[in-house]
Design brief:
Layout lengths: L1 H19 E2 L38 E5 L15 E2 L1 E5 L12 E7 L6 H4 L1 E2 L6 E3 L2 E6 L4 E7 L3 E7 L3 E9 L5 E6 L4 E6 L12 E7 L5 E6 L2 E3 L3 E4 L2 E9 L4 E9 L3 H11 L5 H16 L2 E4 L1 E2 H14 L4 E2 L2 E2 L5 E4 L6 E3 L3 E2 L1 E2 H4 L3 H8 L1 H18 L5 E2 L12 H10 L7 H12 L12 H7 L11 H21 L4 H10 L7 E2 L4 E2 L26 H4 L7 H8 L2 H13 L14 H8 L25 H15 L15 H11 L1 E2 L7 E4 L6 E5 L5 E5 L9 E7 L2 E2 L4 E3 H4 L3 E8 L22
Parallel strand pairs: 34-38
Antiparallel strand pairs: 1-21, 2-4, 3-6, 4-5, 5-11, 7-8, 8-9, 9-10, 10-19, 11-18, 12-13, 12-17, 13-14, 14-19, 15-16, 15-18, 20-33, 22-26, 23-24, 24-25, 27-28, 29-30, 31-32, 32-37, 33-34, 35-36, 35-38
Length: about 750
């Protein structure tokens, strides 16, 4: 009996293991969980995401709202009441929202306040897909369904039998307007609420059509009923009401515009037209699958496949379109920079401090056409505001450090982006590199940086060491772009020289980067575990590796490859101790490092995310393979707590997707990707030019994470990097995977990735 039990157990285990494998994916949108990362709060982020019901890079997102008006945590998985379905443009809870309004169906006694109209709900009755959302509102016995277009949406409400069925339209506070036209079945209005400003002439106009005759129309100032059906006040809401039979479906067609009500009408007619709800839903699903199908994975587990496509979904929102298409189908936009209406492209909702690292490089490889529009949008940012943004939400936002627009612009052009005004963008880069602008544009401390070669610790410029390191990398990207544009050598050599400024902060005594005073002496006392202060949302152990463009030079400063490897190893082996005195509290980024069980490695924040790939530069690529796979396995899952920190506008997701492909852009403007370990047995990348990159790893498994051999187009390949230019030609990468490292592969001097100090 015991033997029979063991035999049956082995069969069951084998069957279960086999069932967990995902075959070729033909309907990738159905593998996505939009709730990934939504179980978050102020002091612990598991993503700080919300379920975005939208199209890729769409102007408008929709989400159920569980938080209160003005709360950045607009949807959290642990909440149990919904108070509205909100049009949102929020990139993160820390940036909060702009251009929002909410729609809420209800029954019974009319209550327009958020607390009054809210309803209990359960995740058991919630369906969340990128192209469709549905939930049962228990207190009202109403089911809500939503499906999106880029600038419009359709709602479908299924009501019970009721003499008092209604819909609340909430235009929020800070100044709003609503008019109900009962005869036309139409509601128009605008919201002026935003979190980051000031914004000149800002309005989010909306138009709503309902397919059931409006029996009741009311407008409210806060919760006070006003006469008539039109109101302009600080906080306007409206109610439309009707009787319903059991199962009666009421449909709304909704669109918005930053330009005018008339422009919202144009978008609604173009994007929805006469389509019913199901037709719009089918088109939205088809758009998602077409976009996602650029990457087709096979032979991973169910969990890996879900996580991969859930991360890819999150990446395809940022930055989102701020432009609209006029009656002649030409792009037009309201400008957050000058408040005027201009022709051309516009995007917003991204922080370059996060996304220069992997999100934009991913667009350059997989979706270059949309990045061409984004680059044209940056031209307009500069022309209309005099600066490139470093954080746009939707205008210039005074957060984070660095001048990383330089990387975003340079990388796009160096990887083949054309068809926009690159000379104006180069002018914008050099302007930003030599001036201190408003709201985090340009370079804070630029005079010190250009004269001393670093931003001093003792001149009351916060996070000075982080700024220095990022400016040095940004100078490298300007140098590379200038050369590509044929700029004079005296000009490009200046930026090349400045890109070596990272050396000025290296402390030989500790082997780490350290703040330096104006007199040339290092800051003292120095605690490498202190977060903030000289660094940004991290400590010296995290920022020491921020020499993306010259890792060979950093190896030399540390005393050679063995000492460099030992320093890398220390990040994982040190205890997760910290000094939070700069902040006066344990910020969530600190807590996420502490609980991850990976020592000082803080993957939940961006500065160190490239660090596991640096073993490739010192002849031990197998350690990259070990740690990259560990991070993928332990810190990502398509569940509400599935991230290990803020997702941050697609960057943390881009790390996973790139790493699952088997490589990562450590230095975006170098034209290279550094090798790691592919996650799937097969991944097919269909490039925009129609060519395919096929990545095979048939013996891949959790145990077989090590690359024993690699061939590219049938030829042995020992380098620890791949060329962007070569990938664009298509090809086949065959990885032989094993359970033990091949310590003879990728160890020669010529195998290492690009560094500026060894540039030929």
């Amino acid at each position: 009996m015991k033997k029979r039990f063991l035999f049956l157990s082995s069969i069951l285990f084998a069957t279960t293991t086999f069932a967990q494998q995902a075959a070729k994916i033909t309907d990738p949108v159905e593998w996505i969980n939009p709730l990934m990362g939504t179980q978050s709060k102020y002091d612990l982020s598991n993503g700080n995401t919300y379920p975005a019901i939208a199209l890729p890079w769409g102007m408008n997102f929709w989400t159920p709202q569980t938080g209160k008006m003005g709360d950045g945590w607009q949807y959290t998985y642990d909440a149990y009441k919904i108070n509205g379905f909100k049009q949102t443009h929020q990139p993160s809870p820390w940036m909060n929202d702009y251009g929002q309004f909410a729609i809420m169906p209800a029954t019974g006694k009319i209550k327009v306040t958020q607390n009054g109209r809210q309803s209990w709900f359960s995740h058991k009755t919630e369906i969340a897909k990128p192209y469709y959302y549905s939930v049962y509102l228990a207190d009202h016995d109403v089911t809500t369904e939503i499906t999106p277009t880029e600038r419009s949406a359709q709602f479908r409400f299924t009501y019970p039998k009721s003499d008092s069925s209604f819909i609340v339209i909430d235009a929020f506070d800070k100044g709003s307007y609503i008019k109900v036209d009962r005869s036309a079945g139409k509601i128009v209005g605008y919201s002026t609420k935003y979190a980051r400003g000031p914004l000149k002439n800002f309005k989010n106009y909306f138009v709503i059509y309902v397919d059931k005759p409006i029996a009741l129309a009311q407008v409210y100032s806060d919760s006070t009923l006003n006469e008539g059906s039109e109101l302009n006040a600080k906080h306007v809401s409206a109610v439309i009401g009707f009787k319903t039979a059991k199962g009666k479906k009421v449909n709304l067609r909704v669109a918005s515009s930053f330009i005018s009500i008339e422009q919202a009408e144009i978008s609604l007619q173009r994007e929805v037209g006469k389509d019913n709800f199901d037709a719009t839903c089918a088109k939205a699903k088809a758009t998602w699958n077409k976009t996602l199908n650029r990457l087709a994975v096979e032979g991973g587990t169910v969990d890996q496949t879900r996580t991969f496509y859930s991360c890819l979904y999150r990446m395809l929102f940022f930055p989102n379109k701020m432009y609209e298409l006029d009656a002649k189908n030409q792009p037009i936009h309201w400008s957050a920079q000058d408040g005027a209406i201009h022709p051309g492209y516009k995007f917003a909702g991204t922080g370059f401090w996060d996304t220069f690292r992997a999100l934009y490089p991913f667009l350059n490889l997989v979706y270059p056409a949309i990045n061409k529009e984004m680059q044209a949008g940056l031209v307009n940012d500069y022309k209309e505001g005099g600066w490139l943004p470093e954080w746009s939400s939707p205008g210039y936002s005074d957060v984070m450090v660095g001048n990383n627009s330089a990387s975003v612009v340079s990388d796009a052009y160096l990887k083949g982006g054309r068809g926009y005004d690159i000379n104006t963008l180069y002018e914008a880069l050099t302007h930003g590199a030599n001036n201190d602008g408003p709201n985090a544009t340009g370079r804070d401390g630029v005079q010190y940086y250009n004269e001393l070669g670093y931003v001093p610790y003792d001149v009351k410029i916060n996070e000075n060491a982080a700024r220095t390191l990022e400016y040095a990398y940004d100078d490298f990207t300007i140098y590379k772009l200038g050369k590509a544009l044929g700029r004079p050598a005296a000009e490009t050599d200046l930026y090349k020289q400045r890109s070596m400024n990272y050396k000025n902060l290296f402390d030989p005594q500790t082997g780490l980067m350290r703040g330096k005073n104006k007199d040339g002496k290092f800051q003292s006392p120095f605690n490498p575990f202190k977060w903030g202060d000289a660094f940004t949302e991290g400590n010296s152990w995290h920022y020491t590796w921020s020499v993306f463009h010259d890792i060979n030079g950093l190896i030399g400063l540390m005393g050679g490859k063995q000492k460099f490897i030992a320093k890398l190893d220390s990040v994982w082996s040190l205890p997760p101790v910290f000094d939070d005195s700069y902040y006066g509290e344990v910020i969530h980024e600190i807590r996420e490092m502490q609980i991850a069980g990976m020592g000082q490695y803080a993957h939940g924040n961006q500065p160190i995310q490239h660090m596991p790939y640096l073993y490739n530069y010192a002849g031990q690529p197998w350690k990259t393979q070990t740690h990259v796979r560990d991070v993928m396995n332990k810190l990502y899952k398509a569940t509400p707590d599935g991230y290990c920190g803020d997702e941050d506008n697609g960057q943390t997701s881009a790390w996973y997707v790139f790493s699952a492909m088997g490589f990562y852009p450590v230095c975006p403007s170098s034209g290279q990707y550094v090798l790691g370990t592919p996650l799937f047995k097969k991944l097919t990348l269909t490039l925009e030019n129609g060519k395919k990159v096929i990545i095979n790893a048939p013996t891949n498994s959790d145990a077989n994470r090590y690359v024993s051999a690699l061939t590219v187009n049938g030829k042995p390949y020992d380098y620890n990097w791949l060329s962007h230019a070569a990938l664009l030609q298509g090809g086949v990468l065959n990885f032989s995977m094993s359970a033990t490292p091949n310590k003879a592969r990728g160890i020669k001097a010529e195998d290492v990735p690009y560094s500026l100090s060894t540039e030929k």
